[in-house]
Amino acid sequence: MSTDDRFAKQRIADDLEEPVQEAGKLARRLGLTPYPVNYWVVDYDEMNELIAYGGFQQRYPHWRWGMQYDRQQKQGQFLGGKAFEIVNNDDPSHAFLQESNTLADQKAVITHVEAHADFFANNKWFKMFSDGAPRSADGEGRDRGPDAAGMLARHADAIREYMQDPEIERGAVERFVDHVLCLEDNIDQHQPYSPVETAEEHFEDIEGVDVTEQLDELDLSEEVRRQVFDDEWLDAQDDDGEGVSFPAEPDKDVLGFLRKHGMAYDEDAGKAVEMTDWQKDVLEMLRREAYYFAPQKMTKVMNEGWAAYWESLMMTGERFAGDDEFVLYADHMAQVLGSPGLNPYKLGMEIWEYVENTENRREVVERLLRVDGVTWRTFGDVVDFTEVQEHLEPPAWLRDVAGHLDELDPEDPRVDAEGLEAARDGEFDVDRYPWKVLTYEGLAQRHYSLLKPQYRGFVSRVGQEGLERVSRYMFDDARYDSIEEALADVEYTRGWERMREIRESHNDVTFLDEFLTQEFVDDNDYFTYEYTHASGDYRVTSTDHADVKKKLMLNFTNFGKPTVVVEDGNYQNRNELLLTHQYNGVMLDRSQATAVLKRVFELWGRPVNLLTITKEFDDHDIEVAKRRDREPEPEEVGKRLRYDGDEVTIEDVPWSDVEHLAATDIDYNTKPDEWLA
């Protein structure tokens, strides 16, 4: 980097010092508690490199980074896309700002980043996938979060050393990394990371004798142990001839299972041999990284929607974007939210706004149902919703703090007494930073969602079922004589508090499952579409929220990829691996499945099998369906793919072999009850 470049970046950093400090303070005033964030100014090429590396400056040598870098550059050159920022889940977080951004864009990025850092610090899925090692508390007594940059740098150094080792072929390391990366999403994402520390599996025969303990007494080497478990020996352990199967329950952590029980295939010897130490080490490092990045994939909609929501509130609601920056910011925000396809920013922000509105509506409805003469049956007839809106309106001084500075009462819980004194002493520009005079409670009332023009009819839309449900769970028997008296007690912070509760516990699947209601689908014009054999094209098929939910959740369950688990590590008593596809109505791509089997073979060292279900259509049924403009009924058939190191074979299997894999309505939810326990 030239001296001029360094000076240019330093000037930009100096200009951004105040926005960074004030955005952090505003975020905390709004109730966010983010990790501290270190901001770095980078140029276009550096930004593309960071995006390719997943937000970090050092990763292990691999061709995937170059491919992602090239893709990112082409996207900017030919598709008009631009990366404004990237931030990582680390404590402190590190955010990188592109030097070519306008000041309006930089402010938007900074407010967006502060919200991301809050999500990283508070969502339980990120807490579960830390770097695996406890860190000491900081100077304020706060438990430290992950040291991801350090972990990834250590992994990069270790893998680079293996590649440079004269006794290890560099190409062999690269190929092994390819094999593992093919399975990087095949982990148990709903369990915390724990390293694989043992390479043994305990087997018990039908009489309950622990074979592993018997072998321990013989003090055999691990290689000899592996040789012992041949087909003939295993047959002898079971009087029924069924052999020993493991694991006891299907294992979602395919990488962990392969780390524990996998072997390498020696082409010269024509058999499976023990993995080398470097292979075990690399596999475990990449598995650990997969667990670290899992929560980002699990919360894409929630996280991006959360950041977009608070960015918008700060930039527009609190005028963090200056008068001369607002139009440019609004234009760029509209482009982000208007991006085609499944847009996590738009979907996430809309659901967060819906959560806020429904919680605020519930608070208002609860107050109104305590007014004498108002019941859930008479609610729509006796409540004047225009009057409700008038009583919810904030006082003039809350809307225009600078214009009413002399009228503010420092004893009012919505006013920050110290901020008011500083404002009156001229220590800061109140027009620019009115929020410094307000408390969290004051800001909540100032930005109350039900007063926004697009949501002014939200309270009046509550249905009889919703009113009855609210009434049934009202335990406070306080009564009011009038609507005005009831609404004077409204807790304006309730919507934000509910949002923070959800932010702590949910992931995208549970988020969509709980809050994607029929009301939300109708308000935001969501629908499903399918390919139809009858017409040979795609058609809108439903606007029912249950159908929309199923369709969306298929994109987020297991990162939107097929769920494949280990069912048997000694399939048919032949030391073969049996994987099963948890079929949810969507068939596997045959060519991709075949390629994956070949990768798994390299990590198992012996033949690999995969059970799945496919849909088959009769040609005659398709022709009849076209004439009648309806869809043909497919036949679901069980298939077993097998790769033995030489060829892939595919055969039909009895339905009884795959029946336990078949989709049901419950399977579509893909949300185990214990997730929310």
Number of helices: 30
Beta-strand portion reads 5-15%
Assign the structural class, choosing from mainly alpha, mainly beta, alpha/beta, alpha+beta, or little secondary structure: alpha+beta
Strand order of the largest sheet: 8-9-10-11-12
Mean pLDDT: 86
- Helix content class: 40-55%
Largest sheet: 5 strands, mixed
Distance between the termini: 52 Å
CA-atom Rg in angstroms: 30 Å
Detail the poorly predicted runs.
Answer: 199-215, 231-239, 665-677
For the secondary structure, the number of strands is 12
- State the shape: globular
Pfam families: SpoVR, SpoVR_C
Domain SpoVR-like C-terminal: 562-613
Domain SpoVR protein-like N-terminal: 14-362, 491-559
InterPro entries: Spore_V_R, SpoVR-like_C, SpoVR_N
Structure description:
Residues 562-613 form the SpoVR-like C-terminal domain. This is AbrB family transcriptional regulator. Pfam families: SpoVR (PF04293), SpoVR_C (PF24755). The chain is 48% helix and 10% strand. By secondary structure, the chain is an alpha+beta fold. A 5-stranded mixed beta sheet has the order 8-9-10-11-12. Strands 1-3-2 form a 3-stranded mixed beta sheet. A hairpin with a 4-residue loop joins strand 6 (528-532) and strand 7 (537-542). Mean pLDDT is 86; it is low at 199-215, 231-239 and 665-677.
